């Protein structure tokens, strides 16, 4: 069994979660059983809805907090009728507005606020119980009650002081006690004093053998607990981003990325590291040897794959650009908007569609409004893009660093040329300058305006001077090494 450890997941997940989703599919193809372990608390969402949304199967998902119970990962199926059957008081009034239902109990004055899965269904995700004007409890449901949170008023606010986790039959499995900034857990006679202890206890209960493999995608807060309790299982670390700080590195000292520093210091306990590109693999090997005097095993496995190359079934929209990412500051989607506005002076029918969600969405909407480009620059939201890329003429990216760049891989898999900066590691992997797009050289001395100008110039050059059919053909050729059958073979070689 391959156990993959991560922290959280969301509706607008990061590249790490998408990489895990791709891996799940690849391991299924290789007939290698796998589980994906998430260790964050998800009080406002059912984790299954988010994992299913990104492509995991329910039986592949382990959530730390229900691991010790017999409750399985499941969508919400608990109904209002089931909730009503559990109510001790029968004299109530009921009202509903959208996703929120309210039960008001006449005798006690208490009320239940139920949060439904959607606006129309009778499926209950959580219930908040208020008594004497104070929140006292929240109950969470999938197909049964999974856990409850307990609250007491403190300084005029509802203060969380504990959680109880249940088995399917409603019996208590274990408790979490929260005191100020500290937390401890009681599981039978076992008392665990930190969340790291809880993670370690879970790993110990997995009873791992030499036939098992542990892959850690994020080590923050959980890495040491896993290594201390994984026994004879082989352990691998996935490097999802640039692994060091260039500005903090000289001939004598290297400053590792703080997300990887711990795992890089534990090479004697790590069986392999995985990078997504050969360029990062080679650089890591050189740096480990130079700065640490060590030669750990580093393997290259792309974080994603292409089931097939996607060809357009109708002509691509002329001079149309696509980009897809979290709408986060480091992705610099605002630069792309400004570059396209400038490029329109030379390419009048140019357009840009931006796919994704994130914290910069409002900022981008404001920028589009100020620049008056809403008729040809569009925010498209979060969508499944498998069959979307092939309708566009080219892909653009303004990120200054990509550990791999799943969207870049997907773009060349649909024959798109790419314009982006000459930065590690994704752009350097997927763009052959002048053959399927442009890698724009940049320096630390360049300001934002200069980078936007260069982006705009390369976009204009591509659309007005280059053979787009030849560029597209070169992207298709590069994409062949990322076909699923090729990447599955790499996983088989590593794990079997």
Task: Describe this entry's structure for a reader.
This protein has 3 domains: 2-72 and 197-300, Glycogen Phosphorylase B (Rossmann fold); 80-192, Outer Surface Protein A, domain 3 (Alpha-Beta Complex); 320-482, Rossmann fold. Helix content is 30%, strand content 26%. The chain has a 10-stranded antiparallel sheet with strand order 4-5-6-7-8-9-10-11-12-13, with helices on one face. It has 496 residues and is α/β, with parallel strands linked by helices. The protein starts with a strand and ends with a helix. β23, α11 (406-413) and β24 (418-421) form a beta-alpha-beta unit. It contains 15 helices and 25 strands. The longest helix is centred in the C-terminal third of the chain and has 18 residues, at 448-465. It is globular and about 80 Å long. α9 (333-343) packs parallel to α10. N-acetyl-D-glucosamine binds at residues 240, 402-405. Its EC number is 2.4.1.-. It is a peripheral membrane protein. Belongs to the glycosyltransferase group 1 family. Glycosyltransferase 4 subfamily. Residues 95-187 form the GtfA extended beta-sheet meander domain.
Break the fold down into its secondary structure elements and pairings.
Blueprint lengths: L1 E5 L8 H15 L4 E5 L8 H8 L6 E3 H4 L12 H6 L6 E6 L2 E6 L5 E6 L7 E8 L2 E8 L3 E10 L2 E10 L5 E8 L2 E6 L2 E3 L2 H11 L7 E4 L6 H7 L4 E5 L5 E2 L9 E2 L4 H4 L7 E4 L2 H15 L5 E3 L19 E5 L8 H11 L7 E5 L5 H11 L5 E5 L12 E3 L9 H8 L4 E4 L4 H5 L6 E4 L7 H18 L2 H12 L4 H12 L1
Parallel strand pairs: 1-2, 1-14, 2-3, 14-15, 15-18, 18-19, 20-21, 20-23, 21-22, 23-24, 24-25
Antiparallel strand pairs: 4-5, 5-6, 6-7, 7-8, 8-9, 9-10, 10-11, 11-12, 12-13, 16-17
Helix pairs in contact: 5-6, 9-10, 9-13, 11-14
């Amino acid at each position: 069994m391959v156990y993959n450890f991560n922290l959280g997941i969301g509706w607008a997940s990061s590249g790490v979660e998408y990489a895990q989703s791709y891996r799940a599919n690849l391991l299924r193809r290789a007939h290698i059983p796998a589980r994906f372990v998430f260790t964050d608390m998800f009080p406002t969402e059912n984790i299954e809805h988010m994992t299913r949304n990104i492509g995991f199967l329910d039986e592949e998902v382990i959530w730390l907090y229900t691991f010790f119970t017999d409750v399985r990962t499941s969508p919400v199926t608990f109904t209002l009728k089931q909730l009503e059957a559990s109510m001790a008081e029968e004299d109530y009034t009921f009202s509903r507005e959208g996703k929120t239902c309210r039960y008001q109990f006449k005798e006690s004055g208490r009320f239940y606020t139920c949060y439904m899965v959607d606006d129309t269904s009778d499926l209950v995700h959580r219930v908040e119980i208020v008594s004497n004007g104070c929140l006292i409890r929240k109950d969470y449901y999938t197909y049964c009650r999974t856990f409850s949170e307990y609250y007491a008023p403190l300084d005029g606010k509802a203060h969380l002081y504990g959680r109880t986790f249940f088995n399917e039959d409603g019996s208590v499995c274990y408790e979490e006690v929260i005191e100020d900034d500290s937390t401890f857990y009681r599981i039978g006679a076992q008392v665990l004093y930190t969340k790291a202890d809880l993670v370690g206890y879970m790993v110990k209960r997995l009873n791992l053998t030499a036939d098992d493999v542990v892959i850690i995608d994020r080590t923050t807060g959980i890495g040491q607990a896993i290594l201390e309790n994984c026994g004879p299982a082989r352990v691998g670390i996935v490097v999802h981003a640039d692994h060091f700080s260039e500005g903090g590195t000289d001939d004598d000292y290297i400053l590792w990325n703080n997300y990887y520093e711990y795992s890089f210091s534990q090479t004697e306990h790590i069986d392999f590291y995985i990078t997504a590109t050969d360029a990062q693999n080679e650089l890591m090997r050189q740096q480990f040897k130079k700065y640490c005097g060590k030669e750990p095993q580093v393997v290259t496995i792309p974080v994603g794959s292409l089931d097939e190359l996607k060809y357009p079934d109708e002509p691509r929209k002329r001079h149309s650009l696509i980009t897809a990412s979290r709408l986060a500051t480091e992705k610099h989607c605002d630069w792309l908007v400004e570059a396209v506005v400038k490029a329109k002076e030379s390419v009048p029918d140019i357009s840009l569609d931006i796919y994704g969600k994130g914290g910069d969405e409002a900022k981008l909407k404001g920028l589009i409004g100020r620049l008056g480009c809403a008729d040809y620059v569009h925010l498209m939201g979060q969508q499944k893009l498998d069959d979307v890329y092939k309708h566009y003429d080219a892909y653009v990216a303004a990120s200054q660093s990509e550990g791999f760049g799943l969207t870049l891989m997907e773009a060349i898999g649909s024959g798109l040329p790419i314009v982006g900066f000459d930065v590690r590691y994704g752009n350097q992997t997927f763009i052959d300058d002048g053959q399927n797009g442009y890698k724009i050289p940049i320096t630390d001395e360049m300001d934002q305006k200069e980078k936007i100008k260069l982006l705009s110039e390369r976009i204009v050059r591509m659309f007005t001077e280059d053979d787009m059919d030849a560029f597209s053909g070169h992207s298709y050729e590069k994409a062949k090494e990322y076909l699923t059958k090729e990447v599955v073979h790499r996983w088989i070689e590593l794990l079997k």
